Amino acid sequence: MLANLLGVRCVIVKNGRRICGTGGCLANAPLHQNKSYFEFKIQSTGIWGIGVATQKVNLNQIPLGQDVHSLVMRNDGALYHNNEEKNRLLGNNLPQEGDVLGITYDHVELNVYLNGKKILDCQFSDFYHIPPTGFEKILFEQQIS
């Protein structure tokens, strides 16, 4: 794990399978393929967040989701981006210790699954509403191999 992928008070243990401490951590593999899936098992209660972020995110500014560089579901069931609550799980769907959260991401849509059941959608294009004046959908660069 590279140092620039961890918050200063963040520690990775269990052969890279568990994050502890305070701060964020980026995976060491970017999401290049068209459809990506990853998951997290909640080992203990506490304050946490999972989602996607660019390498420009400040991993010491927690909780993540406070800027345009991260989209994060927090332990209270709220999905945050740019310090705005974008969606929220109902109280009876909040993840608990032992639950597994899965994320699918296809550069257009992010979906969150709780123990294999889809619980939340996030759209990156094909919006339900027209974006506010001056805003448009996220443009992704194409990597040429």
From TrEMBL:
Pfam families: SPRY. This is SPRY domain-containing protein 7. SUPFAM superfamilies: Concanavalin A-like lectins/glucanases (SSF49899). CDD domains: SPRYD7. PROSITE patterns: B302_SPRY. Gene3D superfamilies: 2.60.120.920. Residues 1-145 form the B30.2/SPRY domain. The lineage of its organism: Eukaryota, Metazoa, Chordata, Craniata, Vertebrata. It comes from Monodelphis domestica (Gray short-tailed opossum). InterPro entries: B30.2/SPRY, B30.2/SPRY_sf, ConA-like_dom_sf, SPRY_dom, SPRYD7.
